[in-house]
């Protein structure tokens, strides 16, 4: 009987640790998303960000179209939901980190594909780009 109580206590402790780790990861994810959103909007309002958008807006749509088509085919769950993706770029145009909301198989697929691109004329190391995807319906709410 004493051994069963010890095992039950160990199981309970493991479950509590798992729940705590999950909650901390969710908090970290929400904080990272909020920071990415803030940085992307700051960079978009900067002179370099406005110039980048003017220069590269016509490049972005066609560059993302193959990913859009692939994700509609491979991960259609959530394709009817608008989403926002935030990409932190290196000076050479690679994606350093990313965040997106809401998370669906489709938006996850799209983010993964968009992260494989090399973005042109990045203004500086660590530049954040906000990409709003309006797949259906009205544009996503601004935060």
Number of domains: 1
Oligomer: single chain
Low-confidence stretches: 19-28, 137-143
- Give the helix level as a range of percent: 55-70%
Provide mean pLDDT, rounded: 81
Number of helices: 3
Inertia-based shape: globular
Strand content: 5-15%
Strand order, largest beta sheet: 2-1-3
Distance between the termini: 55 Å
- Give a count of the beta strands, DSSP E runs of length 2 or more: 3
Radius of gyration: 20 Å
Largest sheet: 3 strands, antiparallel
Task: Tell me the structural class.
Answer: alpha+beta
Sequence of secondary-structure elements: HHEEHE
Walk me through this protein's architecture:
The chain is of the alpha+beta class. The chain has one domain (2-133). The chain is built from three helices and three strands. A three-stranded antiparallel sheet has the order 2-1-3, sandwiched between helices. The longest helix has 44 residues, at 2-45. It is globular.
Notable characteristics:
single chain, 143 residues, disordered C terminus, alpha+beta, 3 strands
Topology readout:
Elements: H1 2-45, H2 47-74, E1 83-89, E2 95-101, H3 105-114, E3 127-133
Antiparallel strand pairs: 1-2, 1-3
Helix pairs in contact: 2-3
Could you provide a short overview of the structure?
The chain has 143 residues and is of the alpha+beta class. 57% of the residues lie in helices and 15% in strands.
């Amino acid at each position: 009987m004493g051994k069963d109580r010890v095992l039950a206590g160990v199981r309970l402790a493991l479950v509590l640790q798992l729940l705590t780790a999950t909650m901390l990861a969710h908090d970290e994810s929400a904080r990272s998303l909020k920071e990415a959103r803030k940085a992307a909007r700051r960079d978009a309002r900067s002179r370099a960000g406005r110039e980048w958008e003017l220069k590269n807006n016509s490049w972005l749509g066609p560059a993302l179209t193959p990913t859009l088509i692939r994700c509609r085919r491979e991960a259609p769950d959530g394709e009817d939901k608008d989403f926002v993706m935030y990409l932190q770029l290196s000076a050479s145009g690679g994606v350093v980190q990313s965040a997106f909301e809401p998370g669906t198989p489709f938006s996850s697929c799209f983010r993964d594909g968009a992260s494989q691109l090399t973005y042109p004329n990045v203004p500086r190391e660590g530049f954040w780009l906000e990409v709003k995807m309006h797949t259906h319906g009205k544009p996503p709410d601004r935060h």
